[in-house]
TrEMBL record, chain A:
It catalyses: ATP + protein L-histidine = ADP + protein N-phospho-L-histidine. GO terms for molecular function: ATP binding; phosphorelay sensor kinase activity. Keywords: ATP-binding, Kinase, Membrane, Nucleotide-binding, Phosphoprotein, Transferase, Transmembrane, Transmembrane helix, Two-component regulatory system. This is histidine kinase. Residues 298-523 form the Histidine kinase domain. Pfam families: HATPase_c. The lineage of its organism: Bacteria, Pseudomonadati, Campylobacterota, Epsilonproteobacteria, Campylobacterales. PROSITE patterns: HIS_KIN (PS50109). The chain crosses the membrane at residues 20-41, 213-237. It comes from Malaciobacter marinus. Its EC number is 2.7.13.3. The keyword ATP-binding applies.
From TrEMBL, chain B:
One of its GO terms (molecular function) is phosphorelay sensor kinase activity. The keyword Phosphoprotein applies. One of its GO terms (biological process) is plasmid maintenance. PANTHER family: HYBRID SIGNAL TRANSDUCTION HISTIDINE KINASE C, TWO-COMPONENT HISTIDINE KINASE. Gene3D superfamilies: 3.40.50.2300. Residues 13-128 form the Response regulatory domain. InterPro entries: CheY-like_superfamily, Plasmid_replication_RepL, Sig_transdc_resp-reg_receiver, WH_DNA-bd_sf. This is Response regulator. The modification 4-aspartylphosphate is found at residue 62.
Length: 529, 221
């Protein structure tokens, strides 16, 4: 049964349990305090009553008794012994009678006083005491009171008779009767006192009983509350423990999961980094291939002219021979020319070969040279599209960096500008302008073309890989991505694009696209640090 | 080249427009052996100057010139200046666009670089041969006219009639009266002429009213 309740209780949720605990503790406390307060008050009331109702009347009765014995009887004795005159005695006796009258009246009044309020103590008392109030005997009390009243009247009457006796000189007889009456009344009063004392004693016992009951109840309730609190606390603590264990287990499992996730993530990150690197390498290769294609076009063009001339020279020997005009000087002349042309062709090849050689060493070079070289390499495409190029700078700046890679970047920009100019701008109006400045420790290269600028919706994406506006065959979409990689990762610089309105030449405003490249000028010493 | 008589070129002047200085020089060196005069020009401006001042028989032009275009140059001279001179275009490009433009301009030939000099010379020969032949025909006509002016013109007329009425097999079919219907000549004179031609084996009688004109016999005279 107890276990059932306990388990039923245990099934409550945490907050309900806590609330119950708090309710029990606070309710118990409150009831104990109220109970103790009430019992204190009722006990105080009992004591008051004991004094007011029992002790005071006893005093009154005692004083009545004293008055009878001391004042009246002594005075009577004095008269007998003729110590005082009758007149003197009469005065004293009248005074004594008055005193007795008042005291008796007060005694009766005190008996009639109602209890002023009802306390819980009284209920308890009533409940506990009813069957024990055998000692309370109202009839006895009443009869004694009546007898006392009667005796008093008798005494008063006797005392009046005394006056008459005094006249009749019959005092002694009366005295004897009076003494008898007074003794009788004293006996009555004594019995009344005894009765009242018994009452008081009984009431005191009642009060003690009530006190004991209250104490027991309080103790019992305290113990009960304590017990309840302890049980609830234990339950709560158990609940806590269970909850704690549960949470601990949960946390552990979650931690485990997290650790696993972390591990797998780490693996994935490593994998992805690897993939990315592979992708980057592939992209670099694609970009190289793309520019290789461009370059091949350039080489082809640059080779065509000398090849044509050499072909002509070779054929000229034949025709001259057939016509018999082949002279030594002609041969010398033509061979010299042919060799010169062949050397040029070879140089062109070297140029491009150098450009594509995986030369990754840093070296000091002039920015101007690099840009001019880039223009030279794409000369054919620029000429074909009729693009004019301008390069302005105050003084040549030398930087210590990767020549080929920077050249690659310029080629990309030139190529993009060329495409934009080719599609957007009239043939006679195509311009690329490069301005080189030094700003603090950076070399700033402004690369401007009047191709109309880059549309707002495209501009944020131009540096993303595989983003291209060109037909699939024309662009791989990695040129600018590569350029950004090169500038930022290899040269620790920055590249960004703006659309501006610029007077490229003096006469006219154009919508222009501006690429700003900043590269720190790293001196050899700084680099080694 | 063996079959073609390149000597016919040596009476002509050629304008060569090419922006590559080396190629211009070397090609000129070769061509000058074959032609009367070769005028080398690097730009269309120079070329126009030459066209104004010299007699040019053939133009050889590159398509891609520095900052200009050979096709535009040809359009200019053909359509605006009304100069009609046979033209050969040379180019490193085989773009259809250029080719179509060239055809529209009725260019005589289109040579892909690097230039094969034999091809160029043959092409020049092909272009200039009709010119040479035309000149020859005109000369011969003049010879005949001069002869007929100083001899009996009737006999010349009859020979003209015979040659003009030859069929594909060099056969001439007509009776004397047929001839006399066309040309006012006496029968005895006509007979005498036919006899003379038969004696020289120039006009051989194959059957009645049919004669073969023997060209080989002319060579032997």
């Amino acid at each position: 049964m107890f276990k059932k309740i306990l388990s039923y209780f245990d099934n409550f949720n945490f907050s309900l349990k806590t609330n119950i605990l708090i309710f029990i503790i606070s309710g118990g406390m409150l009831s104990i305090v109220v109970l103790s307060l009430m019992s204190t008050f009722s006990i105080k009331y009992d004591f008051d009553k004991l004094y007011e109702q029992r002790t005071k009347p006893l005093i009154k009765l005692e004083s009545i008794k004293d008055t009878y014995t001391v004042n009246i009887q002594d005075t009577l004795y004095d008269i007998e012994n003729k110590n005082i005159t009758y007149m003197q005695a009469k005065e004293v006796i009248n005074l004594a009678l008055q005193l007795i009258q008042t005291n008796w009246g007060e005694y009766k009044k005190a008996k009639d006083i109602k209890q002023p309020a009802i306390y819980i103590g009284d209920f308890i008392k009533k409940f506990l005491v009813t069957q024990h109030q055998y000692y309370k005997n109202e009839t006895l009390h009443k009869s004694i009171s009546k007898n006392i009243d009667k005796k008093m009247i008798n005494i008063n009457a006797r005392l009046h008779n005394l006056e008459i006796a005094n006249h009749n000189k019959d005092l002694v007889k009366e005295f004897a009767k009076l003494h008898l009456e007074i003794n009788a009344i004293n006996i009555y009063i004594t019995s009344l006192i005894n009765y009242d004392l018994t009452l008081a004693l009984n009431e005191k016992r009642d009060t003690e009983k009530v006190f004991e009951v209250i104490i027991t109840v309080s103790m019992f309730s305290i113990v009960l509350i304590f017990l309840f609190s302890v049980i609830l606390s234990v339950l709560l603590i158990n609940h806590f423990k269970r909850l704690h264990k549960l949470l601990e287990a949960k946390v552990e499992s979650k931690t485990k999961e997290l650790v696993e996730l972390n591990n797998s993530l780490e693996k994935r990150v490593v994998q992805e980094v690897k993939n990315n690197r592979k992708k980057d390498i592939i992209m670099f290769q694609q970009a190289r291939l793309a520019s290789l294609g461009e370059m091949l076009n350039n080489i082809a063009h640059q080779w065509r002219q000398p090849l044509g001339s050499i072909t002509m020279i070779i054929q000229s020997f034949q025709t001259k021979m057939q016509l018999g005009k082949l002279t030594d000087s002609f041969i010398d002349d033509k061979v010299k020319d042919a060799l010169f042309l062949a050397e040029n062709m070879s140089n062109t090849l070297d140029d491009f070969k150098n450009f594509f050689s995986p030369d990754k060493t840093k070296k000091e070079f002039s920015i101007k040279e690099c840009i001019e070289h880039s223009f030279e390499l794409s000369k054919y495409a620029l000429e074909k599209a009729g693009i004019k190029t301008y390069l302005t700078m105050k003084k040549d700046i030398k930087i210590n960096s990767y020549y080929n890679e920077l050249s690659h970047v310029f080629l990309n920009l030139i190529n993009n500008s060329k495409d934009a100019l080719y599609t957007n701008i009239n043939k006679n109006d195509r311009i690329i302008k490069v301005i080189i400045k030094q700003y603090k420790d950076d070399v700033v290269i402004n690369f401007i073309d009047n191709g109309g600028g880059i549309p707002q919706d495209i501009a944020p994406k131009i540096f993303e890989p595989y983003y291209t506006t060109k037909y699939k065959s024309a662009g791989t979409g990695i040129g600018l991505y590569m350029s950004k990689q090169i500038i930022e990762k290899h040269m620790y610089g920055s590249i960004y694009q703006k659309n501006i309105i610029h007077k490229i030449t003096k006469d006219k405003n154009y919508n222009c696209s501006l690429f700003i490249i900043k590269i720190p000028i790293l001196k050899e010493e700084n680099d080694e640090k | 080249m063996k079959n073609k008589d390149l000597n016919i070129l040596n009476k002509f002047n050629i304008l060569y427009l090419e922006d590559d200085e080396d190629l211009l020089r070397h090609t000129t060196d070769v061509l000058e052996d074959f032609v009367n005069n070769i005028f080398a020009a690097k730009t269309s401006k120079e070329a126009l100057e030459i066209l104004k001042n010299k007699k040019v028989d053939v133009i050889i032009s590159d398509i891609l010139l520095e900052n200009e275009n050979g096709i535009d140059f040809l359009k200019l001279i053909k359509e605006q200046k009304g100069i009609s001179i046979p033209t050969i275009l040379t180019t490193a490009h085989t773009d259809t666009k250029y080719l179509l433009d060239a055809i529209k301009l009725k260019v005589e030939n289109y040579i892909v670089k690097p230039i094969n000099i034999k091809e160029l010379l043959n092409s020049l020969h092909d272009i200039l041969l009709p010119v040479v032949q035309e000149k020859e025909i005109r000369r011969n006509t003049n010879v005949i006219r001069t002869i007929s002016a100083i001899t009996d013109s009737k006999q010349v007329d009859i020979i003209k009639f015979i040659i003009n009425n030859l069929d594909n097999n060099n056969l001439f079919s007509a009776s004397y009266s047929d001839i006399m219907d066309h040309i006012n000549i006496s029968k005895p004179t006509l007979i005498k002429l036919f006899k003379e031609l038969a004696e020289k084996n120039i006009l051989v009688k194959v059957q009645h009213k049919t004669y073969r004109f023997n060209e080989l016999a002319l060579e032997e005279i």
